Amino acid sequence: MRGDRRQRSRGWLKKSVVGLALAVALPFGVSAVGVGTANAALDPSGFDFWVDSASMGPVKSRVFRAADGNTSRVVYALDGMRAGQDLSGWEINTDIAHALTAANINVVMPIGGQSSFYADWNAPSSVLGVGGGAGSSGSSSLSSSGSSSGSGAFQILGGGPGKSYRYTWETFLSQDLPSALQSRLGFSRTRNGIFGLSMGGSGALTLAAYHPDQFSFAGSYSGYLNISAPGMREAIRLAMIDAGGYNVDSMAPPWGPQWLHMDPFVFAPRLKDNNTRLWISAASGVPGAGDVTGIMPVIQGVPLEALALVNTRAFQARMLSLGAGNVTYDFPATGVHNWNNWNAEVYRMIPDLSANIG
User: Fold this and answer.
1) Is residue 261 annotated as part of the catalytic site, yes or no?
2) 255 with 228: CB under 8 angstroms?
3) From CA 96, how far away is CA 102, in angstroms rounded?
4) Which of 30, 33, 148, 267 fits a disulfide with 80 by CB distance 3.0 to 4.6 angstroms?
5) What pLDDT score was predicted for residue 158?
6) Phi and psi based region of residue 159 (left: phi greater than 0; alpha: psi -120 to 50; beta: remaining)
7) 226 DSSP 8-state letter
8) How high is the mean pLDDT of the chain?
9) Which tens digit of pLDDT belongs to each residue from 158-208?
10) Considering 91, 170, 305, 345, which one is annotated as catalytic?
11) Per-residue pLDDT tens digits for 236-252
12) Which of 31, 147, 216, 337 is catalytic?
């Protein structure tokens, strides 16, 4: 009888949490990054590179070698909130690997990390102590487009990456992956570059701030760079529910050391003092040529980019108040939260990246 009551209680909890998540998220049209239609697929010039993580199990990256064969010039490209488990959104939706390798830069695209902010989490994602079921970094229900089917609110008590185990992405990207790239491919683990979009932009700046010997360059496109601003934690909560059913409270308690560790506005002095070369961008949210591919991409992409722009402008003001002269800012007059915007931004960034790594 007691077991039956526990089972009924768990079922009630699951239905209640999913219902609440849907009630809150759906009216706002919350969507994670990656708005747009995939226009590419597996790039045969890249290869899979698997590395074990003590907490996350085997993690795949995709590696693209520099045209001249060098091993000293390396950049990491981080995905967004709906990061899939088979390919990076960068490979699916853009041709940046070809542009970067042609500039004699080796490209590393870590795969996975849905809703992770590429952080070391406090605990596996769970709600009221009820966690997800089986799931590993090497398997997921996500498609190769990096988007899940339907609302992630239905997955909030389900399985998936980061639910049966704790995300430790900062540790993986700063220790496990660079060590393996050095030992197996000869890649330098110093004076690397790193960039990302939205969630990945925030993660790129965090990694550069706390691992300056590894990263001499960092780029953020449409990043959320002022996450302690009023309302930002709840906005992130809704986005993470929608992008796979993740709980922000499992990532980091509110306003504690772990949360502040992830906030570029807070750790901005580190980036200035490290003299890390930065490329910081957010578009206006006004659709430009190629952005209007349907009503939903515009409805979703405009407010997300507007929020990213406010965050990015706040970070700019913070860096200017510190007298930081190590940043290039780019604020295109048109562009929404989509791959069309981010692909173009990489091309604009390449000369600066190339001059500040290796």
Assistant:
1) no
2) yes
3) 10
4) 33
5) 78
6) beta
7) -
8) 84
9) 788 999 999 999 999 999 999 999 999 999 999 999 999 999 999 999 999
10) 305
11) 999 999 899 999 999 99
12) 337
